[in-house]
Design a protein that fits this description.
- By secondary structure, the protein is of the alpha+beta class.
- It has one domain (2-98): Aminopeptidase.
- It is 36% helix and 23% strand.
- It has helices at 9-24, 31-41, 43-51, and strands at 2-3, 55-62, 65-73, 91-94.
- The chain has a four-stranded antiparallel beta sheet with strand order 1-2-3-4, with helices on one face.
- Helix 1 (9-24) packs antiparallel against helix 2 (31-41) and helix 1 (9-24) crosses helix 3 (43-51).
- It is globular and about 35 Å long.
Length: 100
């Protein structure tokens, strides 16, 4: 795992869109959902999220390919840890073959 940089926004955008479609669009695409997918998954949107000082975007890679990411508040730890006090997450996306 590593912290995302601006150069990662294109891959994050594609993975976020894939995650949205796989998770939330199981009964067809309506205009409102299409707009939300485009808005929240755009390269510009992901670049803005990476640049936010109050947010940390962690990448999961396998053989130098992006397979998942998590968007966390900046006060969260950089790596997942077992804790009695779970951390808030803002967004998590992962490619289905690598889940579970």
């Amino acid at each position: 795992m590593r912290l995302a940089a601006g150069r990662d926004a294109l891959r994050l955008s594609a993975l976020a869109e894939q995650g949205w479609l796989d998770t939330h669009v199981v009964a067809g695409m309506c205009p409102a959902t299409a707009e939300e997918v485009r808005r929240s998954s755009s390269v510009a949107s992901l670049q803005a999220q990476i640049a936010r000082p109050d947010t940390r975007v962690l990448l999961a890679e396998f053989n130098e390919h992006l397979i998942g990411f998590a968007q966390l508040p900046a006060q969260s730890p950089q790596a997942p840890v077992l804790s009695e006090r779970p951390r808030e997450r803002e967004r998590v996306h992962g490619q289905r073959p690598f889940l579970g």
